[in-house]
Amino acid sequence: MLGTLSNKQALADGVLDRIGDFKTIKLQTGRQAFLAKLQQLVTQPPDGAKPAAREAKPPLPADRPRGFAAAAQQRINGALLRCEERYPNDASHSVLYVVVERDAAQYREQLASLHEEYFGPGQWDPLSPVRLEVIDRATDEALQRLIDAGLLAKTTRATRPLWPADTAEAAPPPLSAAELEKMAAHRQRAARKLMMARVLCEAGLVEEARAALLEGVLPLSRALALQHRFPEPASLDDALLPPLSPYWKGALGLLRQFTADAAHPCQPVLEALAPFAGEAPAALPTT
To answer: Residue 169 in 3-state DSSP?
Structure first.
């Protein structure tokens, strides 16, 4: 009993006050491993020593679809022939349209995990999901023949090339004089509506200010679409969906909140939209 009490006292001193040496404590068979683990837990690491950190994954690119296309080309070892992001009519989602030489089912399985990494929960806008479709070259060519023959109709409002890289990064042709004039007209109309909304907001006429602001967003979105060579949105809902939604940048969240909530204040939205009314034409982002 005295020996047991002595060992318990030594164990308490080592854990609480870090006095003595665990190696000198003798416990019953099978408990020495416990002492070894306890010694490791309470012993301070040497000065400057730091626990090994897990290797952090590199951040995903800002242009997520283009980053996916580049990663897909590496993952399937050169089997990628073409990758586009297509935007179906009357739908909030887009589709990564991947064309491979053959064995589409096999490559679809390989790319599913990559798609989850880039566009899974918490990685992408849930209001604009991105789906994946992988087909082989023969099927892609057959679909194109049927479209050319008039037996199938295109149901996409826009297509964005992502791979091959030289096609995706090619600069679009400059806007024509008619397109520039049309874009300027849209912006002028939007600027008038936004100015009216600002005056009404400052006067406390909240409902009237909201109506004027909403009327200004659609022409502004059409100017933005012309600038980036997308089809002009037919409605305000379309203006806040891909392919145009990423080009609203930080204003997108405010616009969605404002359109969904009649009580949302006008002032933050007006401030977020002010730069767009006078924004000069620019090329598509490449990152």
So the answer is: coil
Rounded to an integer, what distance in angstroms lies between the CA atom of residue 88 and that of residue 90? 6
Sheet holding 80-88, edge to edge: 130-136, 94-100, 80-88, 156-163
pLDDT band at 78 (very low <50, low <70, confident <90, very high): confident
**Main-chain dihedrals φ then ψ at residue 23, nearest 5 degrees:** -65, -25
Amino acid 51 reads: P
Q: Are 17 and 31 in contact (CB under 8 A)?
A: no
Strands in the chain per DSSP E: 80-88, 94-100, 130-136, 156-163
> What residues are paired with 100 via a beta bridge?
80, 136
Q: Are residues 143 and 72 in the same domain?
A: yes
Please give the residue range of the domain that contains residue 149.
Answer: 64-168
Spacing of C-alpha 39 from chain mean position? 47
Average pLDDT over residues 34-41: 54
**Cis preceding linkage at 243, omega within 30:** yes
Q: With respect to residue 57, please indicate whether it lies within any of the assigned structural domains.
A: no
Helix 267-277 and helix 177-202: axis angle, to 10°?
160
Q: Are residues 90 and 162 in the same domain?
A: yes
User: CA-CA-CA-CA torsion for 135, 154, 186, 209, nearest 10 degrees?
Assistant: -80
Distances (CA, A) of 99 to 87, 149, 170: 16, 21, 20
Where is pLDDT greater, at 157 or 168? 157
Record the tokens describing residue 264, joined without a space: 């949302």
